[in-house]
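re: ur question from earlier - yeah i can do the single chain one, its not a big deal. heres the input i used so u can compare w yours
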Amino acid sequence: MAKKLAITGGPSGGKTTLIEVLKKEFGPKIKVAPEAASILYKGGFPRVKNYAGYYHAQLAIISTLRHIEDLLSESHPECLIICDRGSLDSLAYWPDNEEHFFKNINSTRQTELARYDWVLHLDTATEGDYDTTNPIRTESFHEALLLNEKVRASWNGHPHRQIITAENDFFGKMKKATDIVDDILKQMSLNKK
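and the output i got, formated as tokens:
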């Protein structure tokens, strides 16, 4: 099976930009599992901000991302699968407690952490750099900061998680993240020998 890197973080952390940079930088060495939420919401999945809305949306997102990730992993075992978010991101948006989350997705924290070999968390941008041009993003800056912290907490316990904070300038943030992926690919290459 292919190795997987979940790129996660708060809204306006730079995930989409980073993934575009990685495609250009590493080409056929990587395959990208697109963000399931974007696929669903752009496709017309209702965005309802109440308990039922969050509950059903997150179940649909988890199911979709699992199938995308599994398809890419099985189809491209030689590649690093770059996951635009991961299953535990849904915990940050879940309308109930953690126990309820794992019961409803028929899984455990350890199982979900083990789905990903590495996790790269990009913190939400500073207020001056917060991007409001994404039509799918509905969070205010302060809501984004809260979500960023919830996403961070969702991934607690992953043994290979790196966090890139918002204090870095954006280009520095992208360079640091790209260097991390480069190191992962070098490690994968050495392990194949």
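The chain has eight helices and five strands. not sure if urs matches, ping me
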